Amino acid sequence: MNSAFERAVAAFEPAHWPLAVGFSGGADSTALLATCAARWPGQVLAFHVHHGLQAAADGFEQHCRVVCERMAVPLVVHRVDARHGPGDSPEDAARRARYGAFAEMARANGARAAIKSIALGHHADDQVETLLLALSRGAGLPGLAAMPAHAQRHGLDIYRPLLAVAGADIREWLAGRDLPWIEDPTNDDARYTRNKIRSVLLPALEQAFPQFRATFARSAGHAAQAQQLLSELAAQDLDAVGDPPRIATLQTLSRARQANVLRHWLMQSHGCAPSAAQLDQLLDQVRACTTRGHRIHLKVAAGFIQRQGDFLHWYNAPPSPKTLL
Q1: Element spanning 70, H or E
Q2: Confidence class for position 118, pLDDT limits 50, 70, 90
Q3: CB neighbourhood size of 196 (10 A)
């Protein structure tokens, strides 16, 4: 067990069984599925999300069926509508559809035992790409923390055991085995920012900073730790200001803590996140709210924040003018 890939999988221990492996048919998920199935025979299934975004999607599904039959691994296929709307990122829309499919898998698994654990094949290069994308967008700590090795969402434990393994190491492991995989043709499409990062920036980083994968991972880990502290503080502050937040109590906090607790409230209670500009505008309105007649009605994420009496409320549709104060 000498390769970085084998060491990473050996250190992986899911909390629940059976284990699903996200299986696209690509090199990374093929390697992860093969080694998990060999290590835990009879306790692993493959989960393939059919995005329906390209003509080759049916071929991807058929490839996955052939590989799973060869490995004697059950395959579950979930079809989603991953088309993006106006102004939406195609990659973000596909990712949301994919995680929605994971949640659906956890809720409804037919006659099989309930699925509570899924392993995904994201590796060190994917982590670097995620961090660089976050930097390019001016992201805060949640974005700079990149992808966690373990997360819980919708009752599902999501694992990424390969985040410390370079993509080249995974393919090197695969090269010594008779395992076919497919190459997604969109990986060469320069319209996607991730592909530009992969083809231009990663080789340049490799040349300038050979250890960049490990150092970037440390930075992401520091950001994740700092974000955890902010989340704990936000939870304490939300207990104090209430849900919905009381404006007068919010005003006793510093602007930074107001921003932190309002982001936390919107995500925890309404599943949405404000843009930096929206949050700044909301904080300005909270500061200016010194009279009973001060009106707050702001677009935030896909809904609106408005003042009702002493409190802030969020709605996903325009409120009635009669309710505004």
Answers
A1: helix 57-71
A2: very high
A3: 14
